[in-house]
Amino acid sequence: MIKHTIIMPSATTTREDPWIDSIRSYCGQKAISPRLEFEAAAIYEYPEHLRPWLEALPKLPGVYQFHGDSDTMPLYIGKSVNLRSRVLSHLRTPEEAAMLRQSRRITWQRTAGELGALLLEARLIKEQQPLFNKRLRRNKQLCAWLLADDRPQIVYAREVDFSHQQHLYGLFANRRAALQMLQSLADEQRLCYGLLGLEPLSRGRACFRSALGRCAGACCGKESVEAHRERLLAQMSRLQLVCWPWAGPVALEERGPDMTQYHVIHNWLWLGAVESLDQAAELTRLPAGFDQDGYKILCKPLLSGDYPLHPLG
């Protein structure tokens, strides 16, 4: 993985230099229209000390960081398939002025493509907690619905192996979010609160919502319990978690315009990216826990067939 930083030049850069040409190239025009001239001027007047880094950014995939005075905590971490274009786009909105005033330098790390950039960005944000990023932390309250029995049950990732447990549905930040989702689904589909465990239900008696026509009546025989469960499963199917389908770790091969990376993945957890399969075989130590962000990023690419996969044992 290639990491870059630029040393500040000692000479003061004047305004009559190739910077305007780079703006024209970025805009894709030989002559800048009045509207683009305003936008280019807005970019041009951002802090002079950032310009050397902006000029050096490649038009290739990767992750970039805005750094302030701290050597350990960046101000902002982002990713793009075109680092130069993305960083330039940051220099257009007044809302980002505070970050730019505090920025002292820009660094970047190349990746083979968008997938590697997504994975690296998520990891770096968790590890470094940048000031201007949404905080990403391991959630100890992460939970899902388990529909293996007659009544849905909330289970927690800290207690159940979400990578291998079957019949799990949804990923929720906490119990409250899981209950709210199920209640909304029950309201939309006229499911029974009592049978779902959302409220007490007296045996042999219809629930209160049934009398109001808000429940289809599985609690009192108007609808069979089996039909009620089938309707619940049909609505929840889009939320079903996929169990890890391989016996061990795999290497996903991502080919870029000038480099290839092998992403080592086990139980939906990204272990890192390397440049060869020999290196990938050494990167198989699995940390404990379930990574929600890794699952959301990796599930579709791994199952789509769009990337070559190499089992690692």
From TrEMBL:
Write out the entry's keywords from A to Z.
DNA damage, DNA excision, DNA repair, Excision nuclease, Hydrolase, SOS response
Answer whether the UniProt record assigns the keyword DNA damage to this protein: yes
Known PROSITE patterns for this protein? GIY_YIG
A single GO BP: SOS response
| Nucleotide-binding is among the record's keywords | no
Q: Which InterPro entries match?
A: GIY-YIG_endonuc (IPR000305), GIY-YIG_endonuc_sf (IPR035901), GIY-YIG_UvrC_Cho (IPR047296), UvrABC_protein_C (IPR050066)
Where would I find the GIY-YIG domain in this sequence? 59-134
Tell me which GO cellular component terms the UniProt record holds.
excinuclease repair complex
Where along the sequence do coiled-coil regions lie? none
Superkingdom field: Bacteria
Task: Quote the SMART domains the UniProt record gives.
Answer: GIYc
The molecular function GO annotations come to:
hydrolase activity; nuclease activity
Q: Which NCBIfam families does the record associate with it?
A: PRK10545.1 (NF007833)
The identity of this protein, by name, is Excinuclease cho
